[in-house]
Design goal:
single chain, mainly alpha, two-stranded antiparallel ribbon, 53% helix, yeast vps74-n-term truncation variant fold
Amino acid sequence: MTGVALAEELLLLAYDDESGKATGSRIGLDLAMAAGVLVDLALAGRVAYADGSIVVSDPSPTGYPITDEVLGRMAADTPHTPASWVQRLRHGLRDRILADLVARGVVRDVDETALGHIHVHRYPVVDPTLEAEIRDRLAVALTGDQVPDERTAALAALVGASRMEPSLGLSGPALADAHRRLAEIAGGAGFTGEVSLEESTIRPSVALVIAALAKAITAALGAPR
């Protein structure tokens, strides 16, 4: 597993750098981050999709605390559907990831008091390097003809499923093009049934997990308004 989790990448994309506030659907982001943890486990060969459920195939730690906590929780539980897992894992996950990013100096925690007693936290960016790399990687995938690597394809699929395209800072025709390209990446990776798993641009075992999770997010969010 790399030093940056997919859930962290999704969160950094979704939070405004200056205001430190989340943009777009909060439930969409929470579901996407939960799915991101599961995808990281699939990329690391720790979980797989079988008989309609996501199951642990290797309980050995990955070395990343939040991911390993989820892995341990899954290993101690019975198998659940992708839809069940993203709902179970999304609660409290955002706070854990934000705390980790604060501890690493990527964002800072600005604690403001509203109405005299309500604490409101903002998380403006301190070190923009990490987010810049994420956005650059996505920009290449969305504007070029190159086949993205597994992690970038997974990130693109989760961005599309959770309807986070506006977080890419695009509008008008560029936003429409990004939406189309996200769909193309998902199709070429075997996430949407447009190509067989044998023709997928990523490992079939990983594609199965991502496809199932993307469908679970889409179903949970319902029809676009």
